[in-house]
Structures are given as structure tokens and as C-alpha cells.
Amino acid sequence: MKKQAVIGLAALFAAYTANVNAEEHIIKAAVTQFRPMVTFAKPGDTITWTNMAGHDSTSMKGMIPEGAEAWHSKLGKPFSIKLDKEGIYLFKCTPHASLGMMGAIIVGNADNLDTIKANVDTSGEPKGMVKRVIRKVEKQLKK
Fold it and tell me: 2.60.40.420, 3.40.50.300, 3.40.50.1400, 3.30.1600.10: which CATH number matches 23-142?
């Protein structure tokens, strides 16, 4: 019984410290861009999109970590999501994707970059714009 109580307290402490250390990252919609285009986060951090008049935030098919939950925010509304699964998440503004309004969130290890590259042709997204975001991700990962 004592061992179970210690394990339970340890689990509560771990959950508490994870929430205390979690950060919020702001991505601002600006005309037809997301700023920053590439955001680094830790598992458990919250991502918030602001200034969303005329915009949404939508994860792109085949461009998020396997097993991660896709999202699609409401047009014109601020939106927040908590990301727990490590990897790269590519997202877009649906009305402005063809103009390059896309971005990336890198949560922890960026171990799904090869999968994202392999899915460019089948994603249904503007290939040139997706490749542009991938180049920006690669540049940020080299820093």
C-alpha cells in the first residue's frame, strides 16, 4: 500500500511540474504569413494563433507526426492547441495556402522530416509552398 502511495505521489508531481514548465508560443497571422513561420516547442507546450481575422489554422494531411491529432480551427477566431507528441507539424491557412500562408511547429525531436518530404506529392497541398516551409524547417534545424 505504501509503495502505491509513493508511486501515485510521484505521478502527481511529474504531472504538476510538466504543467508548470509548459510554455505558450504565439503565432501571429499577418496579411498572408504566419509569424514566426517556424516555432520550436516542447511536448506539453501550448501553441496559440492570434490576429486571425480572415484566417484559420489547419494541420496538413501526412505532415504531422504519426498518431498526432489533426486540427482545424474556426475561420477568424483565435485558436490554441496543446501538442504532446514529438515531431514536426506543418499547418496552413486554408484560404491563403496557395499564397504560401503555411508554417511549422517543431515539438522536441524532429524525427518525421523524411516522412513529411515523402508525403509532399500526395498531400494535396501546393507543392512549391510546402517545399518552401520544409526548406525553412531544415534551415532552422541546422542552427
Answer: 2.60.40.420
